[in-house]
Amino acid sequence: MMLEKQNLLVHLNVSDLQNLIKEAIKNELHEFLEVFQGNRNNLEEESEIISRNDACKLLKVSTTTLFHWNNNNILKAKKIGNRVYYLKSDVIDKLKSVA
C-alpha cells in the first residue's frame, strides 16, 4: 500500500509552538553534545604526548631504535625545546602494525 504525501493542518497557539521549538532545539543540542564530548575525548587521547623513555617501554625498543625510526620516517618524533616526545596515538598505531 502506497501512502501519498498528505498535508496536515494543525492549529497551535503561540506558546504551544514556542514550546515545541524549544523542545526540538533541546533534543538536537543534547545529541550534539553527546557526539561532541565523545569526539573531544578521542582528540585528547590522540594528542597525548609521551616521553621517549615511555615510548621505548611501550614498544620494547631502545632509544637508538627510536632515533633510527625517526630518521627513516617510521615513527616521527615531536620536539619541544631540546626534549623529544611522541604522540601516544602514533606509538599505539606502531604497536598495532607490528602485532
Write the SSE topology.
Elements: H1 14-46, E1 49-51, H2 52-59, H3 63-71, E2 78-80, E3 83-87, H4 88-98
Antiparallel strand pairs: 1-3, 2-3
What is the distance, rounded to the nearest whole angstrom, between the alpha carbons of the first and last residues?
Answer: 54 Å
Beta-strand percent range: 5-15%
Rg calc: 26 Å
In total, the number of strands is 3
What global shape is seen? Answer: elongated
Give the spatial strand order of the biggest sheet. Answer: 1-3-2
Major sheet size, sense and barrel closure:
3 strands, antiparallel
- Helix residue percentage: 55-70%
* Arithmetic mean pLDDT: 83
CATH fold title of the largest domain: Multidrug-efflux Transporter Regulator, Chain: A, Domain 2
**Which series of helices and strands comes N to C?**
HEHHEEH
* Overall tally of structural domains: 2
Report the top-level CATH class of the largest domain. Mainly Alpha
Q: What class would the helix/strand composition place it in?
A: mainly alpha
The number of helices is 4
List low-pLDDT spans.
none
Oligomerization status of the protein chains? single chain
Task: Describe the protein in words.
It is elongated and about 75 Å long. It folds into two domains: 12-46; 49-98, Orthogonal Bundle (Multidrug-efflux Transporter Regulator, Chain: A, Domain 2). 62% of the residues lie in helices and 11% in strands. The mean pLDDT is 83. A hairpin with a 2-residue loop joins β2 (78-80) and β3. The chain has a three-stranded antiparallel beta sheet with strand order 1-3-2. It contains four helices and three strands; from the N terminus they run αβααββα.
